[in-house]
């Protein structure tokens, strides 16, 4: 299984660089492709989840490619 990590996680609460890994979270991409994202924990208690925003929108479980395919299908 693919595990996504962030090379430079920054705490959303205090803005400091985080070095400690905390956990791994499950994400399912395109409904049938499970991956894991690394979760980091700051000293202040803030949690940072590796975002998949490079190829997916926030709060969306479909990659940009798949969404584009959907648009194409409605045009056909
Ligand atoms: Zn922090």
Mean pLDDT: 85
Give the low-pLDDT segments: none
- State which percent range the strand residues make up: 25-35%
Number of DSSP strands? 4
User: Are any ligands bound, and if so which?
Assistant: zinc ion
Structural category: alpha+beta
Radius of gyration: 15 Å
Element string (H = helix, E = strand): EEEEH
What is the global morphology?
A: elongated
Describe this entry's structure for a reader.
There is one protein chain. The protein has one helix and four strands. The chain has one domain (3-75). The model has no long low-confidence stretch (mean pLDDT 85). By secondary structure, it is an alpha+beta fold. The chain starts with a strand and ends with a helix. Strands 1, 2, 3 and 4 form a four-stranded mixed beta sheet that branches. Bound molecules: zinc ion (ZN).
From the structure above, extract its key features:
single chain; alpha+beta; 1 helix
Task: Present the secondary structure layout.
Elements: E1 3-4, E2 21-29, E3 33-41, E4 47-49, H1 64-75
Parallel strand pairs: 1-3
Antiparallel strand pairs: 2-3, 3-4
The structure holds zinc ion.
What is the structure about, briefly put?
With 76 residues, the protein is of the alpha+beta class. Helices cover 16% and strands 30% of the residues. The termini are far apart.
């Amino acid at each position: 299984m693919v595990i996504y990590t962030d090379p430079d996680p920054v705490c959303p609460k205090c803005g400091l660089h985080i070095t400690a890994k905390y956990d791994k979270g499950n994400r399912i991409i395109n409904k049938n492709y499970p991956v894991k994202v690394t979760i980091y924990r700051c000293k202040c208690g803030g949690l940072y989840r590796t975002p998949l925003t490079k190829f997916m929108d926030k709060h969306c479980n479909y990659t940009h490619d798949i969404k584009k395919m959907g648009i194409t299908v409605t045009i056909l």
